[in-house]
Design brief:
The protein is an alpha/beta fold and 374 residues long. It is built from 13 helices and nine strands. The protein has a nine-stranded parallel β-sheet with strand order 7-6-5-4-3-2-1-9-8, covered by helices on one side. The site of flavin-adenine dinucleotide has 29 residues, from strand 3, strand 4, helix 6 and helix 8.
Length: 374
């Protein structure tokens, strides 16, 4: 018998060995579990004014407790928030453990301007972008696209890849860094077609395919309220040859006023049943519970249908977002705080009349859509 075998068969050693094996097995199981765990991420927008900043950063700290995979920071239409988006992304990089994704729009902007903006972000260490076309300014009928502009999200993805490869070509050090922290480019997808552009789902699937060919890594969807809309998009996209992951964008359905506003901005109709559900109680806490439950059902349905994770539209508020994730068991008990009833301030609502002429509330007409920007 070898010394090793002797040690292995000694009763104390056997116990130590078994304990070590079981710890390793547990660690492997945890790692496998962590790999399989759906991604969790949040959308935030830059503070509209300095007074809004402290509240936003308190929200960021709360969201940080659930260790999201990334947080994305919106970019105002036509680059209106260029400086605030940049400032916020910079602070997220420097002061938090979060991975920021900078939204970037290009419509109406020259290639040189877009290049300069991208270079600024890259210089600051940003490695992830959400490449969007953006929408032309609302209510400006004479508006013309920039003659030397970037006209589609796919062109922007291509430009991002070009800029990165030029930087790597200029500097071997940069090329090494880029291997260690590759550039990641996400794009938008639209479960019900893009109402803002009048695009049908079939057109948007073709646009998504073009974004993939241009070098997009994954997609995040526009809001939707029925799992079938997301699952239908994924099925149609896969049939068309789209292979990149498509992450569902989920809005917490606890605040009817917010839902109405989002409907106005995106053109995505909120189902009548949701307004009925929320509007039939005057108790804000009960409304919050009902809305959270509806959101959890949606999250569970898309995850059961194969979604890789969820991207939560927070509107810079953490309570509803974290309750939604908690309800869907997506935070692994890592949440530090639980929403207190006092945090729920939604006013009582009357159910809006959303009935469409054809009697299908889900397809009710909406006001002019612009984007997901609040
Ligand atoms: P594109 O892919 O360029 O598509 C624009 C239109 O052209 C579509 O109708 C599309 O169908 C059509 N098209 C393009 N290429 C093709 C093709 N090859 N074949 C057929 N049709 C084609 N807006 C902001 O201003 N700031 C933000 O921060 C912001 N964040 C967003 C985040 C998410 C997750 C989403 C879903 C949207 C966001 N938006 C934002 C809104 C977005 O900018 C608008 O919805 C915009 O109208 C569409 O952008 P796109 O990137 O899909 O454009």
């Amino acid at each position: 018998m070898t010394v090793v075998a002797e040690i292995e068969t000694a009763p104390g050693a056997r116990h130590a060995d078994a304990a070590r094996h079981s710890r390793a097995a547990q660690r492997r199981a945890e790692q496998a579990g962590a790999l399989d765990r759906p991604t969790v991420s949040f959308e935030l927008f830059p503070p509209r004014n300095p007074d809004a900043a402290p509240r936003l950063w308190a929200t960021v700290r709360e969201l940080e407790t659930v260790e999201p995979d990334f947080v994305s920071v919106t970019y105002g239409a036509a680059g209106k928030t260029r400086q605030t988006t940049r400032g916020m992304v910079r602070r997220l990089l420097r002061e938090t453990a979060l991975t920021p994704i900078a939204h970037l729009t290009c419509v109406g902007t020259s290639r040189d301007e877009v290049t300069a903006i991208v270079e600024e972000f890259l210089d600051e260490g940003v490695r992830s972008f959400l490449a969007l076309r953006g929408d032309p300014p609302a209510g400006e009928p004479d508006w013309r696209p920039h003659p030397d502009g970037v006209h589609t999200a796919a062109e922007l993805v291509e430009l991002l890849r070009d800029i990165e490869s030029r930087r790597c070509g200029r500097s071997a050090a940069q090329a090494v860094r880029a291997r260690v922290r590759p550039l990641s480019v996400a794009v938008a997808a639209f479960p019900r077609g893009n109402h803002a552009t009048g695009g049908t789902r079939a057109q948007d699937v073709q646009a998504l395919l073009a974004k993939q060919h241009a070098g997009a890594d994954f997609a995040i969807t526009q809001v939707f309220y029925e799992a079938e809309a997301y699952l239908g998009l994924v099925a149609e996209a896969r049939a068309a040859g789209v292979t990149i992951p498509i992450v569902p964008g989920i809005i917490p359905t606890t605040d009817p006023a917010r839902l109405l506003r989002v409907q106005e901005l995106t053109g995505v109709p909120v189902p009548r049943r949701l307004f009925d559900l929320l509007g039939s109680t005057d108790d804000p806490l009960e409304r919050h519970r009902r809305g959270t439950r509806a959101g959890v059902d949606l999250v569970n349905a898309v995850l059961d249908g194969g979604a890789p994770g969820v991207h939560v539209y927070t509107y810079n508020k953490h309570e509803a977002a974290l309750d939604l994730l908690d309800g869907a068991d997506l935070v692994g008990g890592r949440r530090s705080s639980v929403t207190t009833p006092a945090a729920v301030t939604t006013p009582a609502v009357t159910t809006p009349d959303l009935t469409a002429p054809d009697g299908n509330p889900a397809d009710a007409a909406t006001t002019t859509p612009r984007g997901t920007q609040p």
